[in-house]
Design brief:
The structure holds two protein chains of two kinds. Chain A is of the alpha+beta class. Chain A has nine helices and 19 strands. A six-stranded mixed β-sheet of chain A has the order 10-11-12-9-3-13, with helices on both faces. A six-stranded antiparallel barrel of chain A has the order 14-17-16-15-18-19. The radius of gyration of chain A is 21 Å and the shape is globular. In chain B, the strands form two sheets. Chain B has a six-stranded antiparallel β-sheet. The chains are: A alpha+beta, B alpha+beta. Chains A and B meet through helix 2 and helix 7 of A and strand 4 and strand 6 of B. Chain B: InterPro entries: 2-oxoA_DH_lipoyl-BS (IPR003016), Biotin_lipoyl (IPR000089), GCV_H (IPR002930), GCV_H/Fam206 (IPR033753), GCV_H_sub (IPR017453), Single_hybrid_motif (IPR011053).
C-alpha cells in the first residue's frame, strides 16, 4: 500500500501529532503520511474493532460538495456520470456509487449524501478516495453542467468509528448519532462542535464516519480514545477488515478497466437506471446485467495457511489460468487466509475449486460467498 | 556457541559446524503479526543471499535470505502450526532452520551482538 512519494513531500492530516503520540508506524499512502498500525499491531487492532470499537483517521479522503439550484437538477447532473439513482435519494440519506468512464469502467467509488435540511436543497456531499480525488475533481469539473459547481472541502477532517460499541461511544458526545439509520447522515454537535455524522463505514460493522472541523479533530479523537471501548486503528487493519467484509479497495479490486457488473457491485445500479440507462458505458453495463459479465469479482477461501497476495494468478487445478487475485491476506476474524479476485464467469460459482499460484506452487482455494464475515450494519427497529 | 547477526536482521548461532538461523527481535517488530512461515526442506543447499524462507505477516510477505552458504539440515516444523511464535520468541524457540556451515569464512563478515545493536540504533 505504500506509494513512492518522497517522505518530505507527504501531506499530513490534523491528527498527525496524535498518531505520533500514540506510537503509530507511519507510511506514505496516497501522498499522505498515514498510520499503518499502532502499538498493538494489525491483528489486535482488527479484532478489537470487531469486538468493541476502532477509531480510524480517514482525513486523507476527499470531501466535496456539489452545489446546484435544486435537488433534482444536481441529482440529474450526478446521474449523468454514475449508474445510481440520486433523484429519489431521500433527505439525509447516503448512497454508494461509482464514477464511470465512457467504457463503463470505474474512475472511482464514492459515497454521496443528500443533506437532511431543506435549506441545503440542491447540494450533494461527496466522499472520494484519497488517491483519486484530483482525478475525480477534474472529471467532475469537466463534465458537470455550468449550473452545478464543485466545492472541495479542505478544512475538515474525517474520522471513522467502527465496531459494535462505536455508536454508543460516539453517542456519549453526540447523542443524536444513536438515532441515525444505516446509510443516513445528519449535522449534529459533538461536545458542542459542529460535525456531520453518517452511519456507514468500511468494516462491515455498525459505526459512523464523522466529518469534523480540522481544528477540532484532535479534541474529538482524544475524547473518543478516552473511552475504554475505543482504540486507534491503522490502515493495515482497515484493509483486513474491509477484505473480510468483501468490500472493494479502489485501484486493487476495481479500476478504470472493471465495470460495476464485473466488480459485483451492481447494487449501486438502481432499477430505474438499469432500465433507462443514460450513464457512461450504459450499453456495456446493461448488456452485462442481462447476459452476465465475462469475468467476475469473487471471494476465495484458501485451504492452507499460506496467504495469496494481490497479483497471484488464479488457475484451474492443474494450471490453466482463469484470473488474478486483486486483494488477499490473512483474515484475523476468519482465522485463515482469504482473497478476492477476478475469474472467468464460468468459474465464478461458489464452491468452485481453484488454485492460487504463490511462489511457483498451487495453493488450493475455493470460490466463496462474500462477505467472509457477516455484515452487522444497524437496522433500525420498526416503531 | 557463538552468535552472529546479519544486516538483514537474522541471527546465526554456530555450534561446531551447525548454524541455527532465525530472525531478530527487531525484524519481528518490523514485520508485525506473523501468520505463516515457509521453510526449505532439509537437504536443500543454499548460497549466501539466496531466498531461504518466507515470512508472511498480516500485511505482506517478506523473504528471508540465507546469511551464509550451507546445506539445510532441519527446518523448525513447529512454526507451521504456530507462526505467532516468531513474534513471541524470535531469538529462541522460533528459530527457522539449522544448516551445515558451508564456508566458515563468511561468518567473519557478520556482526557480533554489540555491532548489530549499534547497527539497529542507526535505523
Amino acid at each position: 500500500m505504500a506509494s513512492p512519494e518522497a517522505v518530505e513531500d507527504l501531506k499530513t492530516t490534523p491528527l498527525y501529532d496524535l498518531h505520533g503520540e500514540l506510537g503509530a508506524k507511519m507510511v506514505p499512502f496516497a501522498g499522505y503520511s498515514m498510520p499503518v498500525q499502532y502499538k498493538p499491531g494489525i491483528m489486535k487492532e482488527h479484532l478489537h474493532t470487531r469486538e468493541k470499537a476502532g477509531l480510524f483517521d480517514v482525513s486523507h479522503m476527499g470531501q466535496a460538495v456539489l452545489v446546484g439550484p435544486d435537488h433534482e437538477t444536481t441529482a440529474r447532473a450526478l446521474e449523468a456520470l454514475t449508474p445510481s439513482n440520486f433523484v429519489e435519494l431521500g433527505q439525509g440519506r447516503q448512497r454508494y456509487t461509482v464514477l464511470l468512464n465512457e467504457e463503463g469502467g470505474i474512475i472511482d467509488d464514492l459515497m454521496v449524501t443528500r443533506p437532511v435540511s431543506s435549506e441545503e436543497d440542491g447540494r450533494l456531499m461527496l466522499v472520494v478516495n484519497a488517491a483519486r480525488k484530483h482525478i475525480d475533481y477534474t472529471h467532475l469539473r469537466a463534465k458537470l453542467p455550468e449550473n452545478i459547481t464543485l466545492h472541495v472541502i479542505e478544512d475538515r477532517a474525517l474520522i471513522a468509528v467502527q465496531g459494535p460499541e462505536a455508536v454508543a461511544a460516539v453517542a456519549a458526545h453526540a447523542p443524536a448519532a444513536a438515532d441515525l439509520a444505516f446509510m443516513s447522515a445528519a449535522p449534529m454537535e459533538f461536545d458542542g462542535i459542529a460535525c456531520h455524522i453518517a452511519r456507514a463505514g468500511y468494516t462491515g460493522e455498525d459505526g459512523v464516519e464523522m466529518s469534523v472541523p480540522g481544528g477540532a479533530a484532535e479534541a474529538i479523537a482524544r475524547a473518543l480514545l478516552a473511552d475504554d471501548r475505543v482504540e486507534a486503528i491503522g490502515l493495515g487493519a482497515r484493509d483486513s477488515l474491509r477484505l473480510e467484509a468483501g468490500l472493494c479497495l479502489y485501484g486493487h479490486d476495481i479500476d478504470e478497466t472493471t465495470s460495476p457488473t464485473e466488480g459485483a457491485i451492481t447494487f449501486c445500479v438502481q432499477k430505474r437506471r438499469r432500465e433507462e440507462g443514460g450513464f457512461p458505458g450504459a450499453a456495456r453495463i446493461q448488456e452485462e446485467l442481462t447476459d452476465g459479465p465475462g469475468r467476475l469479482r469473487v471471494g476465495l477461501r484458501l485451504e492452507g495457511k499460506a496467504p495469496a497476495r494481490e497479483g497471484a494468478e488464479i488457475c484451474l487445478p492443474g494450471g490453466q489460468p482463469v484470473g488474478t487475485v486483486t486483494s488477499g491476506g490473512f483474515a484475523p476474524t476468519v482465522g485463515a487466509p482469504i482473497a478476492m479476485g477476478y475469474v472467468a464467469a464460468s468459474h465464478a460459482d461458489p464452491g468452485t475449486k481453484l488454485s492460487l499460484m504463490v511462489r511457483g506452487r498451487e495453493l488450493p482455494a475455493v470460490v466463496a460467498d462474500m462477505p467472509f464475515v457477516p455484515h452487522r450494519y444497524y437496522r433500525k427497529p420498526k416503531s | 556457541m557463538t552468535t552472529y547477526y546479519s544486516k538483514d536482521h537474522e541471527w546465526i548461532a554456530v555450534e561446531g559446524d551447525i548454524a541455527t538461523v532465525g530472525i531478530t527481535t527487531y525484524a519481528q517488530e518490523q514485520l508485525g503479526d506473523v501468520v505463516y512461515v515457509e521453510l526449505p526442506d532439509a537437504g536443500k543447499t543454499v548460497s549466501q543471499g539466496d531466498e531461504a524462507a518466507v515470512v508472511e505477516s498480516v500485511k505482506a510477505a517478506s523473504e528471508v535470505y540465507a546469511p551464509i552458504d550451507g546445506e539445510v539440515t532441519e527446518a523448525n516444523t513447529v512454526l507451521a502450526d504456530e507462526p505467532a511464535k516468531v513474534n513471541e520468541d524470535p531469538e529462541g524457540a522460533a528459530w527457522f532452520i539449522k544448516m551445515k556451515v558451508g564456508n566458515p569464512d563468511q561468518l567473519s563478515e557478520l556482526m557480533d551482538e554489540a555491532a548489530y545493536k549499534a547497527y539497529v540504533d542507526t535505523l
